Amino acid sequence: MASPYRELLGVPGARSFVAAGFVGRMSMSMVGIGIVLLVSAVTGSYGIAGAVSATMSLSYAAGAPLSARFADRYGQHAVLVPLVLANAASWSTFIIFAQAGLPIWTLFPAAALAGLSLPSLGAWVRARWTYALRERPARLSTAFSFESVVDESIFVCGPIIVTALSTGLHPAAGLAAAASFTLVGCLALAVQRRTEPPPRPRGESVPGSVLRIPAILIMTPVFALLGAVFGAIDVSGVAFAQEQGHKALAGVLLGCYALGSGTAALWYGARSWSAPLDRRFRVGLVLLTLGGVGPVLVTHLYLMMAVVFFSGLAISPTIIPAYGLIERVVPPSQLTEGLALVSTTVGIGVAMGSSGAGKLVDAYGSRAAFLIPLGAAAVAAVIGLAGTRKISKRELSSRSIAG
């Protein structure tokens, strides 16, 4: 199983941009939980905490495709440096506002600025893989699988780190660490010019939004619903651990969910698939829905850890072919924008899921909140099963990537 990944990391420059991307993306598994832990500590309300987290996620979903569009046009280095400096300043402002006891409404614009300046670094790194493997496209599927493993490793480590810092050191410590990871990783990626995809040639006409592509219109609501699954799991998991008297283990619980997905991603990327991408995507959606049943029924923390691990096994086999479909239908000159759009559409879903789950936790407890990821996965499966069958064969065959 290790051989395909060992060969992948032998690509010139790959180890460096993978390492920078790993550090810079650590925050994606930390900021949502960090906001919930900090804001709930200073306000005493999961509902307010979920709403602030949702504001950040919505702002991120609006800003990240725009910054990715600029990266396609002007180059990653030119955009990433000022963007990440603005992000560091925004997180500092948010933490100061929360700790100073300013009116609750001030947290919302501060969170919005932080989300607006947060890059979708996973899309930027995947665009680098596409450029680095432009002469070996058969290895791109393995690269996307590897990036899913990186993502899930982040979601194993990040929640544990942010929870430990926020509950054991200071309520703001986890969020401060997340902001630091973003700053260091993004700057490290920005200085790597050899693997940077070239900007769009000067004088070339600027294409319209990738939303004009029919397949993107089908995939974006599915990604949003997947985000609702993840956002609701975050808030519900923290609340469930607290109800069980072990709030400090919330990160471990959420890490088990990500560990299941990472395990599946390793297996997925090491296989040679003959089934079409769209079929694999539909199967993944069905499995994800079935995996959402268990958390609704479980009442014990350690049993919940096992259940969410098995639920997480369906995440990567859904996400990896979904990214493959996006890479196939989006023009190369807009690839970063396309990948960022669907990635940040997840942010809209995270906002819906975390806000809805926070309200259900306040009103009915965590078990009721676990109904949100189950329902979101079911709706995503319905849309995905019906919608991907309508993607034209011309779209799916217009570009060649590994199955």
Automatic annotation (TrEMBL):
Keywords: Membrane, Transmembrane, Transmembrane helix. The keyword Membrane applies. The keyword Membrane applies. The chain crosses the membrane at residues 78-98, 104-125, 146-166, 172-191, 211-233, 248-269, 281-298, 304-326, 338-356, 368-387. PROSITE patterns: MFS. It is found in: Cell membrane. One of its GO terms (cellular component) is plasma membrane. SUPFAM superfamilies: MFS general substrate transporter. It holds the Pfam family MFS_1. One of its GO terms (molecular function) is transmembrane transporter activity. InterPro entries: MFS (IPR011701), MFS_dom (IPR020846), MFS_trans_sf (IPR036259). Residues 284-403 form the Major facilitator superfamily (MFS) profile domain. It is a multi-pass membrane protein. This is MFS transporter. It comes from Actinomadura barringtoniae. The lineage of its organism: Bacteria, Bacillati, Actinomycetota, Actinomycetes, Streptosporangiales.
